[in-house]
Write a structure and sequence with these properties.
Blueprint: H1 4-16, E1 40-45, E2 50-54, E3 60-61, H2 66-78, H3 80-86, H4 114-123, H5 129-144, H6 152-161, H7 163-174, H8 182-193, E4 196-197, H9 199-210, H10 225-238, H11 244-250, E5 255-257, E6 262-267, E7 271-276, H12 287-300, E8 315-320, H13 332-341, E9 345-354, H14 356-369, E10 375-386, H15 388-403, E11 407-411, H16 417-427, E12 436-437, H17 440-455, H18 477-485, E13 488-492, E14 497-499, E15 508-514, E16 517-522, E17 528-534, E18 539-540, E19 554-557, E20 561-567, H19 568-577, H20 579-607
Parallel strand pairs: 9-10, 10-11, 11-12
Antiparallel strand pairs: 1-2, 1-7, 3-4, 5-6, 6-7, 8-9, 13-20, 14-19, 15-18, 15-20, 16-17, 16-19
Helix pairs in contact: 2-3, 2-4, 2-5, 2-10, 4-7, 4-8, 5-8, 5-9, 6-8, 7-8, 13-17, 14-15, 15-16, 19-20
Length: 608
């Protein structure tokens, strides 16, 4: 199935493609050759998963997006003290090509404007300009995870028209910010801006910063960890030039733009985002790139100052229907089927607030299990809420799985509008909508029934004679006849209440020969919790044999039910004449209670 994150990006791509604002950068002649309709969006997670839509492999020049990476190289090569003496970290509030220098020292305001970037380029390690260039290109390639080329035509275009930047370089030389020949440093700066990348390259570069300086796929360290936070800090405050404050307020991620139309955004420890769209606004930022990041930040809950957590923390545990089967006691045939196949039912226990990246992680985990799965149960008990976008992804996943014959159902969301509301909105327009169950037991029983139907579709309703039931098995033929003489056959219709919790015990014991009943215990407020579902061959009301005087649970017929019933009074009279009957029944009862205890222990172990 197509991953819902990819579908999300494709939908976003289609919506953003309609935006026609902005114009191509024209101060570098070669940049006017770009196609204004090009649009690529790419995301890379911390474990190297790549999601993209549109023109993600279209090559363009990195331009100013190179600045944070070269700044990081200068920090790694020269140290924070020296770099800090030559380049500040204060926002300029000016355009990217402004001549913005500290009036007291003559140093550039920050490394994200051209003046600061030319200075940091000159600080990269190397005895010659050629060695410095080799180092710069290697650093950019390490961040991208592949050897990056240079667009020579763009380089020559920049070099031949970059008069303002030449003036800035000579001014930096005048204030002793640049050692040696400022034109050599400037040519390296023009070259680094002319490095060719595509949208996926930029997404990996952003993800490498998000991953503490380690490339998510190659595992190679591109920048020492202690310098990553400095780079991200300057990106957050200065990366979008005179739009930086609004960007941080609205979108809330460290970012950097380039006049060729690229934008990167970083959320540390979670993912890297890249967008390519050449038309720029008046501040030199990609129009569609800003809108894409705004939408992604909102939908993925990526704002740095919002309450968020690692996507992997959204999934607490995974276990199967073999670890925690339903509490019903199925007949022999169904029991055998479930013992063999129940591991194909998977529980996923979720927690926290589910944003899109948390949903993406959950979906990816489910995708890895589909080969061995017949049904998924998403236990939402510890989920605080879910975003509309995350709900849409889960709903789309549900529909995709359904087409593959796999069910996805939800458990424990009743009365919680912060979850039910988004899920309902996401499923609107779908004829059947999503399935939700009050508790895990109801959910897994539905999944068990679905599994059994797929394995044995012609299986008739199970019937078990009372004498072969769990309670009465093992009686000799003569004792069976005597017990049968005190039993009556009773029928109950689906939905009929057979026993009610709190009623005085009437001493009846019920052995089910066909059909199914639910055993419910009362909760505060008039609600009930189902604790068991019983089928043919099982019994209820047997606590009366141990002296119980009051019914502790309500029993309701789920289907039409046929029972054999006897009273404790008649049974005691029979046992007085034939003590063997009572011995067998009590032994069976103790074994059954032990089985129930083992089942409860298994449930607890699965949840631990």
């Amino acid at each position: 199935m197509q991953h819902p994150i990819k579908t999300y990006l494709e939908t976003l791509h289609g919506e953003l493609q309609k935006i026609s604002d902005g114009k191509l950068a024209d101060y570098i002649p070669e940049l006017t050759k770009a196609c204004p309709d090009s649009l690529g969006i790419c995301m890379v997670t911390m474990d190297g998963e790549v999601y993209g839509a549109g023109d993600t492999d279209t090559l363009f020049t990195i331009q100013s997006i190179s600045k944070p990476f070269v700044f990081g190289a200068a920090l790694a090569d020269r140290g924070d003290d020296l770099v800090g003496q030559r380049v500040g970290v204060e926002p300029s509030g000016d355009a990217f090509n402004s001549i913005s220098l500290n009036p007291a020292t003559g140093t550039p305001r920050n490394p994200m404007i051209n003046a600061g970037a030319i200075a940091t380029t000159s600080l990269v390690a190397g005895a010659t300009a050629a060695e410095q260039w080799s180092r710069i290109l290697q650093v950019l390639s390490d961040f991208a995870g592949r050897a990056l080329p240079v667009d020579e035509a763009v380089y020559l275009s920049e070099s031949s028209t970059g008069f303002r930047n030449r003036a800035i370089a000579w001014m930096l030389k005048n204030f002793n910010v640049i050692d040696g020949d400022p034109m050599a440093a400037l040519e390296n700066y023009f070259r680094q801006c002319s490095v060719q990348v595509h949208c996926q390259d930029l997404a990996f570069m952003a993800a490498t910063l998000a991953n503490g300086g380690v490339h998510p796929q190659t595992g190679q360290r591109a920048l020492p960890a202690d310098h990553v936070q400095r780079v991200l800090s300057v990106m957050a405050t200065c990366g979008m030039y005179d739009y930086a404050g609004s960007w941080l307020y609205e979108i809330g991620m460290p970012a950097k733009s380039g006049v060729a139309g690229g934008v990167i955004a970083v959320l540390q420890g979670r993912l890297g985002v890249a967008v390519y769209s050449p038309p720029l606004d008046s501040k030199g930022n990609s129009v569609r790139g800003i809108e894409a990041c705004r939408r992604i930040s909102r939908d993925f809950n990526l704002h740095a100052f919002s309450q968020n957590s690692q996507p992997s923390q959204a999934l607490v545990r995974v276990y199967s229907g073999a670890d925690a089967p339903s509490r019903r006691r199925p007949g022999a045939h169904l029991r055998r089927l479930l013992m063999e196949e129940a591991s194909r039912i998977k529980y996923l226990c979720l927690q926290g607030y589910l944003a899109v990246d948390g949903a993406e992680y959950i979906i990816r985990r489910m995708a890895a299990m589909t080969v061995t799965t017949h049904s998924f149960i998403l236990d939402m008990h510890q989920v605080e809420g879910i975003s509309d976008s995350a709900a849409r992804l889960l709903n789309q996943t549900r529909l995709e799985l359904m087409r593959e014959g796999i069910a996805l159902v939800f458990s424990r969301i009743q009365g919680r509008q912060s979850i039910a509301g988004p899920l309902s909105r996401a499923a609107r327009g779908n004829d059947r909508g999503y399935l939700s169950f009050e508790d895990n037991d109801l959910a897994v029983e539905w999944c068990e029934n679905r599994l059994a139907e797929s394995l044995s579709p012609a299986m008739p309703p199970e019937e078990t004679p009372a004498t072969e039931s769990v309670l009465l098995r093992g009686l000799e033929a003569e004792l069976q006849q005597r017990l049968n003489a005190i039993c009556q056959t009773r029928h109950y219709s689906a939905g009929e209440q057979i026993l009610r919790a709190g009623d005085a015990g009437d001493g009846r014991v019920f052995v089910i020969e066909s059909g199914q009943v639910s055993v419910l215990v009362p909760l505060q407020g008039g609600a009930h919790q189902r604790i068991a579902s019983l089928g043919a061959g099982l019994s209820f009301g047997e606590m009366a044999l141990l002296g119980a005087q009051q019914r502790s649970a309500t029993v309701v017929a789920d289907t039409d039910v046929r029972c054999r019933e006897f009273t404790v009074t008649d049974f005691e009279a029979l046992a007085a004449a034939s003590p063997r009957i009572k011995i067998v029944l009590l032994e069976n009862l103790s074994r059954d209670l032990a089985d129930k205890l083992r089942g409860a222990t298994q449930w607890i172990a699965a949840l631990a």
